[in-house]
């Protein structure tokens, strides 16, 4: 596995122009260009510029407002698998109570950070087209950038898009779709309306297909063909296109040693694409999960989450640690804060094959794949014999396997079971997160809020 410290290497990637990405985000601009930035007047002219720019694209994904903490944590808070027990009761706390408002600062920050990440990818794609150096790996660079952009739009749709019933339904709501960079304050920063869910889905598929065609197999801290295939399978499963999900998942090469690896969710044989942090490029997971010294104990496992584990499940000790109580062994490094975050795992591929096979009538394949995960977790083979029962077991395994990785809320949404699993969530409009009120207000009526907020 290739390990890269993105913050140390991305010396020209933190684009100053990203300040003007979102609606109204350019009310003020600081007329200073940091030494680790490159302005739109300078641009990328060499393969080294593009390489640093690509690292900057990854670095944006590692922000504490994104996959350095906030995005997966918000998803698991609202799904009930994380309980907010600290002081952020007006941000994370209300998310965990499903009472999020359009001015929730964490929701606002995460929305903005994802669009900053998109803008970095857009800028790299634009600038890399003009680099003519024959030594520049243009197609692979653009393949990674487009896969990252697809990943970001998948996440935007996951929280803010679709319908109350889920994803892929007629009339599904999308998000503002920006496929060109913000180069200057002016026309580039004008508000745009939301695209439909279908339009955003088309862009996601095009980006992932380009990545699949131009990247090589492998695993590590960079997106590979394996990761792009797995993301395409994730997206099709979410959109309820089960035959396509099965097709893409089956193309992901099997990972040697996966079936016998420890069921921790952090081991290398399971990680297809893993965000790698360091002492100088830290995430906030252990800090939020662990008490002082070294942490602030904002999060505990959700009420009843331990009881969801079957007897003998090896994942229980990982997901609900007892020393100290209320923690997890997925994120433990309070001093260095360099726990990796798994963006794509092979366990997800296995369970996608299982679920898509069950939903398309191949119960033999579904059972075989499901039992790989059950056996690894120390459980006996499934006793389910019908498609519905097998899918129910698969969804439980997904919940336990991907604890604190931000998956369950999207499983509840895509299966239209939010209100069944969480019966106190009676306001179905809250199945979609609210778009930040600042963007709505500054758009002059062009950007429309999700219904009933």
Q: What is the CATH architecture annotation of the largest domain?
A: Alpha Horseshoe
The CA-CA distance between the termini, in Å, is: 44 Å
Per CATH, what is the topology of the largest domain?
A: Serine Threonine Protein Phosphatase 5, Tetratricopeptide repeat
CATH class of the largest domain: Mainly Alpha
Please tell me what the overall shape is: globular
Q: What count of helical segments does DSSP give?
A: 17
Strand percentage: under 5%
Total separate domains: 2
Q: What structural class should be given to the helix and strand makeup?
A: mainly alpha
Number of strands: 6
Low-confidence parts: 1-37
Helix-strand sequence: HHHEHHHHHHEHEHEEEHHHHHH
Q: What is the overall pLDDT average? A: 91
Protein name: RagB/SusD family nutrient uptake outer membrane protein
Domain SusD-like N-terminal: 98-237
Keywords: Cell outer membrane, Membrane, Signal
Domain RagB/SusD: 327-453
